[in-house]
Amino acid sequence: MTILSQARRRVLLSTAFAGLFAATAPASAQQSGQRITITGEISDSWCTISGLMFAKGTAHHQCAVWCALGGIPVAIRDSGGNLYLILKIGDDEDSAGNPRVARMATHEVTVDGELLERDGVKYLLVDRIADDKGVITMTQEEHGIQPFGN
Amino acid sequence: MTGGVARRSLLAGIVATLATRAFGHDYKAAPASPPAHDPLATQFGGAFSLLDHTGKRVTDVDFRGRFMLVYFGFSRCADTCPVDLPVIAQALDALGPAADRIAPLFISVDPANDTPAVMATYVANVHPRLIGLSGSEAEIAATAKAYKVHRRKLTQAHHGHGEYTIDHGSLTYLMGPDGRFLTLLPHKTSPERMAAVLRKYLS
């Protein structure tokens, strides 16, 4: 069993109650293929949607890296709580972005790209990282380092 | 294996219960026709030639006329596969006879271990209609690249001799009867929502 699975199972079993889920973006009628600039925090979609592992800032950095490398789709969450799932970064033709985006886990970034919406989910094909402020949301003192501490 | 299936079902049940507000929770059925400008259509999918879990060689063309619901994973996976595969199984069950028009494909990212015999046992424990596909390393590499699935084999400190895991992408892909990409079902999709999306395209 991997570290990711141990963490996930422990959390699933200990938090099997409703109401933890942060709201995802409403399915607006945006045009598919719309050029867009998004600013927000990069995080894995599992924790961001579920609200588990306090999915924000430094407290969640370690977990976000593991989830991204483990294959969990990575998203950008903007200040309005909208989630944009990243399918591609730059000229990466081999994967849906996970290994590359893991290096920017928890970073506050601004990206330019193409917004594609399908079946209620917003996807991003990122052309370029216009700005990367690094990890700027300091949450570890309040929430500890998720999931196992330092 | 029964215990493993029970654990997977339990896990999927928990996920389904919790995922009421997951991706597209406000999803509403809409016309299934793709937008005129559809960059997603060319992002995922392509030709493959692999061995199914009976040992028969199959290609993507063999599934023409049916939708393909494609998921990549491996039989030893303890992370995403035990979560996502029961979701697929429950969605198929929810569709009833309409699910006959869908070929659910479980493509191994671990061809060295996932022989047809291994895959046969594994898929039988997930869903009777699930088709396990494996092949040579080159065949799997080409298929994974076509679907933009990253995979990375690694060992960790707690692994014993011969133990390992493989990080792999966790998107589920719906391909149309013509083999072309239709939509994605991201990890964290609930069975109900997956069934609703599938129903939309089937209609």
Automatic annotation (TrEMBL), chain A:
**What is the residue range of the signal peptide feature?**
1-29
Q: Which PROSITE patterns match?
A: TAT
The protein's UniProt keywords, in alphabetical order, are: Signal
Question: What is the official name of this protein in its record?
Answer: Uncharacterized protein
Which InterPro entries does the record associate with it? TAT_signal
